[in-house]
Write a structure and sequence with these properties.
Elements lengths: L2 H20 L2 H59 L5 H78 L3 H29 L5 H28 L15
């Protein structure tokens, strides 16, 4: 293949790709459905015309057959009258022969009309099958187009969402969230630091009393029990007073 042939193939491929990108699936499917309906309309019209010709041929065949039977009956009647002496035998035979000729002509016409009817009827059956097939396909594609519309709508919405998501800078968003997390942690630590600074300092006496608090409380409890026992008379009165520490 020469360079021009290869370039032609490339241009053709690009043109087909461009057409594919331009095609709207829903619109193309709807157009296809309209084409099927148009084909159905034309098929029904053709069916009606061919069926009319079949009916006409069948009626003609029936008419020719009836005329043939009539000429047969006339030939018989002529011969019977000749036998009965009502007609000249020679004349009766001549007329009966003419009637039989007419009968044969009618039979020939009948055969032509019947053959036409059979041909038209075969076409009618084919067209009826075509119409049935088109109706089934139209019903099928009506459902398909409805589903296609729904799918196209979902696909369009999904595509829009995905495009919007694709434009989001995840790295900058995550970095921002990390900064906010660090800032909150820093603010919490700073708040705790200020809380500790705002607490009043304890002096040395408070610290000593706090450390000895449990021992002093036990001593006071013992003194209280002794006093209660003295008041109730269980112990002799004590005249001496416990000296306070210097």
């Amino acid at each position: 293949m020469g360079i021009l042939g290869r370039l032609g193939k490339i241009f053709q491929a690009e043109a087909n790709a461009a057409i594919d990108n331009m095609e709207d699936p829903v619109k193309m499917a709807e157009q296809g459905l309209r084409d099927l309906r148009e084909n159905l309309k034309k098929s029904i019209e053709a069916l009606a015309e061919v069926k009319a010709m079949a009916i006409r041929s069948k009626n003609e065949a029936a008419n020719y057959k009836a005329q043939a039977e009539s000429y047969q009956q006339k030939a018989v009647a002529l011969l019977q009258r000749a036998q009965q002496g009502q007609l000249n035998p020679t004349e009766a035979e001549r007329l009966a022969g003419e009637a039989l000729k007419k009968k044969n002509e009618m039979l020939q016409q009948y055969q032509v009309a019947w053959n036409n009817y059979q041909q038209y009827q075969a076409q009618v059956e084919k067209l009826e099958a075509t119409v049935r097939n088109l109706k089934q396909n139209i019903q099928k594609w009506e459902n398909e187009v409805r589903m296609l519309k729904a799918r196209a709508s979902v696909a369009k919405a999904t595509k829009k969402v995905n495009q919007e998501l694709a434009n989001i800078d995840y790295s900058s968003t995550v970095s921002m969230l990390e900064r906010m997390k660090e800032k909150v942690a820093k603010d919490e630590a700073l708040a705790q630091s200020y809380a500790e600074l705002s607490m009043p300092e304890k002096d040395v006496d408070e610290e000593i009393n706090q450390a000895l608090g449990s021992t002093s409380d036990a001593s006071i409890s013992q003194e209280l029990e002794a006093l209660k026992a003295q008041i109730s008379g269980k112990l002799p009165p004590q005249n001496e007073t416990k000296e306070l520490p210097q």
